[in-house]
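Input sequence (530 aa), recorded before submission:
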Amino acid sequence: MSTEDSWLCTPLAVYDEIFGKYGLLGNEKFCCLIEEAVAANLSRIPVINVTPLDSIPDGHLVCVQGMVQDMFNMELFMDDFRVNTADSLNRRSFRFRDFDSLQLDDAEDPSGVHFSERQSLYIVPVPGESSWVQSISFSAEFCPIKPSRQTNLPSDKIHFIVLNEYHNIRLSRCKYVPCPTEVGVKRSIFPKNEDMPTEAKKAKGRETSSSKLKPGKQFPLSEEEEDETKVGVLVRVYDEMKDVLKINELVQVYGILEHARLGSFFPPEDFAPEGKGPEPIPRVHSIVLKRLRHINPLLMETASLTTPLEPSFPKVLTESADRLRTSSAREDLFTSLLECFKGDALTAEYTLLHLVSSGISSDQTADSPYPNNLPALNIVCPLTVDHGATTGGVVKSTENPSSLLVNRLRLLLPCLVTQFAPIKLTLESLNTGPSLMPIRDAAKGALDAGRLQLPDGTEVFVDETDMTVGQLQPRGLLSFRALSLLATQQRVPYDFQFYSQDWKTECRVLIISTGPSLIKVCSSRLFDSD
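Predicted structure, token format:
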């Protein structure tokens, strides 16, 4: 490994060298160095979202993108201290590494200790992320490129050439293979020429043997937990970024990977302060953190690192070429929806308006040339008494038209939006199914994700076609209220045990039912299945 790659393979060693020379003033110098290196070498950095954790060595620089599912209390760490060694007084820091008392067993008590604060965030893969976004996002967003050759092809053809090149880059990144000698190597604050304490060596061996345990998961959409490629990550955030982040925000983090350390003589609960369960959770110590407005890989605009997120609106289209492309895109979308709704043009128009709407309040859209604040949409597909009947010797479909419509929409909508969250609304799912609202587990000290804990811009697809008559239990009433608040007021209630709070959100809600929905939305459309 060349010294030029130290920022990528051993960034902690680079930090220790800078810190030893500049002390606390070196923190900013190190972050600037890594930020510049990241900008110039995006394609070389393994992305946890698409790279198996087993193939990334401990201490490597990585990227992780996802949603802030939970936030934990501030914690103190030793940001600057001095320890006496055999022949010198060394200056060290626990920044970008988890504290382990074993590392100081053979050293004298640290002196001149300066404490700082950091905060831990539980980052999960973006809930309901569409497959087309996954296919190109870790190429298009991290590796913006231009077509490899000049061409006179129309702009749409150039677009597909670029997407193909994005796809090729993504495939190459998924095959990331580290240096074999570095896999599983654990970090220490001891320089290479110093002996590690005996107990630390034993613990290190136990850590390596336990690294094969599967990471714990706590995702809003429980079906995504079965996907072994999706992993939740505990991100340690330092400096001012810890004060501006909020739950449900989309973030992109470049930091130092620290594989979960289990198997030492400490009790298990000491290794799961996050409260996400006894399974190991990989940690990433954040160096560069960006707040994202969206995850659409074809739209490159993102938020700045520290400024609050503000709504952005499209500029007025003045050029004829822009108007032509917009008109063509709308025609393509309308054609797809028209086919999905079997020629019902009015329902297709309603749905298209719904898809381009948002839940931003009217005071924020006052200056927008395209106000798009629309309520949730309820498409009513009545039950027909003659499905499965025979007419003129021809047997009609044995499936209910409402079920067929739901199936078509579940196939089409993920192709049109970046995030898609389906919800099956039945009496049983409300009373005994997964909770729709997030609830804080006081015993674990963690927030159990509800199905409605979603980032802004998510399309919530509610299938109410199998709702039956019955009585809602207290749990069902809470879940139904949460869904109603989302659809009518763009708010989701969070239960923090000692108090509850309605959390503002911006998710579109589309409801398919066989009669007027139980959720009293203001916009509904009767779908004619014939």
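Checked by second reader. Residues 6 and 13 are 8 Å apart (CA to CA).
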